[in-house]
Amino acid sequence: MTGTIINPAMPNLTRQGRAPSTVNKQMAVLSEMLKLANRSQFILHAPYEGVSRLKLSKNDPDPLLLHEYQALIAALPRSQALIIIVAVHTGMRPGEICALAWEDIDLVKGEIHVSRSLTNKRVFVPPKTDAGIRTITLLKPALDALKEQYEVTGANPKQEIRFHHREIGKTEQQSLRFVFSPTAYSSKKAVTSPRTRLPMAGSEALNLQISAKGILISHGIPTHAGR
């Protein structure tokens, strides 16, 4: 079965050779199609049974050591360093930090309520799982960083966004003041003025066009070898 048959809008799938992750995704789609055909009695056999997913190679984690993290914070502009501090000391995902609003934060109680994420396509959605909707008790470094950030964006005007629920077609308008909302430049199609301020999307939020270790190396700071 060729890629053209599976999805004519994606002719690139007809090329020879596939990554295991691509094969697994296409097999999952095909498997569901065949299951439906079997349940509907269009076919009487179950060709999807016994088909296992291809194993994916996993890269070993290579986190920054403490001294590297400290050097990174010192090397970054303060506006970027605050984002990293909040990320490290809350465990929040990049998309959750992108969508973080002051309405989600209680600086008096020292808590963040996570209920929103921003995709790389700039769509506001819930966290991937119900467990992702959670309240985080802030450690002092994160609380201090947010208090510092509040002086920068805490009084910003609210922005209207459309929040997409998990149910297809269900959306709602939300009025929010984003915590991290740097100036977006006119290279973005959605922006007409360099003064327009937009919430960040995906890894853009953390300015990771270059790696954290790349930043350290550019400042002449030695790093440990990946394990």
From TrEMBL:
Q: Which domain of life is it from?
A: Bacteria
Membrane-crossing segments per the record? none
The record's section on SUPFAM superfamilies has:
DNA breaking-rejoining enzymes
The UniProt entry's GO biological process terms, in alphabetical order, are: DNA integration; DNA recombination
Q: Where is the Tyr recombinase domain?
A: 59-227
- Note the CDD domains from the entry: INT_ICEBs1_C_like
**Keywords for the protein's UniProt record, in alphabetical order:** DNA recombination
A GO molecular-function annotation: DNA binding
- Sorted alphabetically, which InterPro entries does this protein's record hold? DNA_brk_join_enz (IPR011010), Integrase-like_cat_sf (IPR013762), Integrase_catalytic (IPR002104)
For this protein, the record's PROSITE patterns field holds: TYR_RECOMBINASE
- The name this protein carries in UniProt is Phage integrase
Species in which this protein is naturally found? Citrobacter freundii
